[in-house]
């Protein structure tokens, strides 16, 4: 049965939920999807036919431009459930703005705000059982847009599909994270698309990341493409350094993604009177600080893992271990952010968004 909601989204419910087939205690990040998905098509110059329907395959022409020219952007956000069953998003307005910023750079038409929020509210209500309460549990939300017009001429598509998928998640990236500072490969360049969550940015990292894995590192910290002397960010996380008590992170630019977690950490640091410096960070400076014992921490910040403490970094043939701290900034920021996300603390900045 099709129901049309006040927001004009057609809803076609799954006949019976697949939720009982899922083991929520051994979820591999991003591999299981909830019962429903949202989609909306852009054609004849406007977004139309918004629908929530059972998760399943799409039928798309093999000539669709996304397959040939990579016209695709995405977002990553999470829904959290508190102990009373309340469902919350964290700063979703930021994700909305960013998907349109990414879209614009890839010549993709912007998606309307009201529909973005109506779609999120409705699909999250429908699949609310897929959000488990408890710290660390969440429902990862993947909005994305692909170019669907058939035709292999290298020009922007006239048709697109906007979709939202939901994937239940447990805590992400556990254990010691070992990273290597890139000396040869680059993620982004001036004037490029590094600031956008454009699909090709991620595909291009797989090969150099595989090389790093063969050497025992899980992630690459990308450096500037000119000199490889300045530390920029990780594949899906912004990077923070703590020297003595000062927190340092690179400024956002057209090469560095403007992460929601990054800006939330900076805001929390400000209110906690932690000295922060947003400036370029030299590889040599970090190695020097390691040598003289002032480098206390390095951690990544991003929606998937919230905060990922880094235990070791490599540069050239050298390996540098970081101290194990009793009271780290990483742990402190992680718990402060999660307390806000899970509705366990005050929300002085208005970051929580209650799903209707
Ligand atoms: C998504 C992403 C981040 C983190 O952004 P959040 O909004 O905090 O999730 C950082 N760097 C890159 C390259 C990313 O794709």
- The CATH class name of the largest domain reads Alpha Beta
CATH architecture heading of the largest domain: 2-Layer Sandwich
Bound compounds, each kind once, are:
pyridoxal-5'-phosphate
Tell me how many strands there are: 20
Q: What is the distance, rounded to the nearest whole angstrom, between the alpha carbons of the first and last residues?
A: 23 Å
Order of helices and strands: EEEEHEEEHHEEEHEEEEHEEHEEEHE
CATH superfamily of the largest domain: Aminotransferase class 4, branched-chain amino acid transferase, N-terminal domain
Structural category:
alpha+beta
Main sheet attributes: strand count, strand direction, barrel closure: 10 strands, mixed
Function: Acts on leucine, isoleucine and valine.
Cofactor: pyridoxal 5'-phosphate
InterPro entries: Aminotrans_IV, Aminotrans_IV_CS, Aminotransferase-like, B_amino_transII, BCAT-like_C, BCAT-like_N, BCAT_family
Enzyme class: transferase
């Amino acid at each position: 049965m099709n129901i049309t909601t006040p927001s004009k989204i057609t809803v076609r419910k799954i006949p019976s939920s697949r939720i009982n087939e899922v083991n929520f205690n051994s979820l591999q990040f991003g591999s299981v999807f909830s019962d429903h998905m949202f989609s909306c098509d852009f054609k004849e110059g406007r977004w139309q036919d918004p629908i929530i329907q059972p998760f399943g395959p799409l039928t798309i022409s093999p000539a669709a431009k996304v397959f040939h020219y990579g016209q695709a952007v995405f977002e990553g956000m999470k829904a959290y459930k508190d102990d009373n069953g309340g469902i919350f998003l964290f700063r979703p307005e930021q994700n909305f703005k960013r998907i349109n910023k990414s879209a614009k750079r890839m010549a993709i038409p912007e998606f309307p705000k009201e529909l973005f929020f109506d779609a999120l509210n409705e699909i999250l209500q429908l699949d609310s059982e897929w959000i488990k309460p408890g710290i660390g549990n969440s429902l990862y939300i993947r909005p994305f847009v692909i170019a669907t017009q058939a035709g292999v001429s290298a020009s922007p598509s006239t048709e697109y599909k906007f979709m939202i998928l939901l994937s239940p998640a447990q805590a992400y990236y556990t254990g010691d994270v070992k990273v290597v500072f890139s000396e040869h490969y680059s993620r982004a360049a001036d004037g490029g698309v590094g600031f956008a969550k454009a699909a090709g940015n991620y595909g291009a990292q797989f090969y150099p990341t595989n090389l790093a894995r063969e050497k025992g590192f899980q992630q690459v910290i990308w450096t500037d493409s000119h000199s490889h002397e300045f530390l920029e960010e990780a594949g899906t996380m912004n990077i923070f350094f703590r020297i003595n008590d000062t927190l340092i992170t690179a400024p956002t630019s057209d090469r560095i993604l403007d992460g929601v977690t990054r800006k939330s950490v900076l805001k929390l640091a400000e209110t906690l009177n932690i000295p922060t410096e947003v400036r370029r960070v030299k590889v040599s400076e970090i190695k020097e600080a390691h040598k003289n014992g002032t480098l206390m921490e390095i951690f990544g910040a991003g929606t998937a893992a919230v905060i990922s403490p880094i235990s070791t970094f490599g540069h050239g043939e050298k390996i540098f271990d970081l101290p194990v701290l009793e009271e780290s900034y990483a742990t402190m920021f992680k718990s402060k952010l999660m307390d806000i996300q899970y509705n366990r603390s005050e929300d002085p900045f208005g970051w929580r968004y209650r799903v209707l």
